[in-house]
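Changelog-adjacent note: as of this version, every example in the card shows the full chain rather than a window. The one below runs 321 residues end to end.
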Amino acid sequence: MTLRFIDLFAGLGGFHQALERLGHTCVFASELDPSLAALYEKNFDVVPHGDIRDAFAKVPPHDILCAGFPCQPFSKAGDQLGFDCPQWGDLFDYVLRILDTHKPNYLLIENVPNLVRHDEGKTWEKIKTRLESLEYKVDLGRLSPFMFGVPQVRERAIIIGARNGLDDFTWPTPTHRLDQVSINSVLDKSPNDARPLGPRFIQYLETWQELLDALPVDEALPSFPIWAMEFGATYPYRDQTPHAIGFGSIESFKGALGRSLKGLTAQEVEQTLPAYARNQTDSFPEWKQNFIRQNREFYKRHKGVIDAWLPKIADFAPRSC
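Full-length structure tokens:
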């Protein structure tokens, strides 16, 4: 049986691709980002509407509502304002309005896994209660592509719902463990449009491989981004930013890659800090503080190895550090 689905906050069209392969038909799509909307049209020959706040009244009857509503308010990498986020916090309300208006039989929603933990679980309970008030039986699972043989670790919270209950629904059983998937399974060894890496990029890769080879074999690779600029850095970041303290008042500390700030002008101090630490704000968001802390702790654990290696990246472009 062919079902009609709508694709809200459509992005590149992951929901569309999956449901179309199952024989179902997209009757409406919405994507605010113009570049993503253009790619969506190219991929599926469907022109997405823009902001759902303006387009929700144009949504036609459908059987399945798909929505990957913006994750920034709930992500650990953001301010975690949730539904109070002034930019995106109200968008879930439009999902509810569409569900209430058209009463599709099924819903399929995805977001970041932190949605489950956000506000000590209260956010998920609020979502669940509001969906149940519209007569949907709902359940939540956490899945990642690698569990099904796709070489990507990207866990997502998946919310499924049905008006006629979920007695016949079971979550898919993972077919793979993380150690059973490899990026080599999706790489084309001889692509027609391949371009060789320049010598500088090869140097970046080889130099970083040297560090990986020098680390203890029992040291797991960090799950956080490696910010080498923090290796040896001591500038303050917890309570106030360098900007808030004053760039001319932190010369007793060290900047990016452990460079001394002593004797530098305020402008020189600013330029010696990592670009992400020069923000003209009074405090860093919690996620940035955590990344800085984790990288400095990583450096302290492996100081002997890193200090011998660090001069090799001193002239690297900041983004390769």
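Structural remarks: DSSP finds eleven helices and six strands in the chain.
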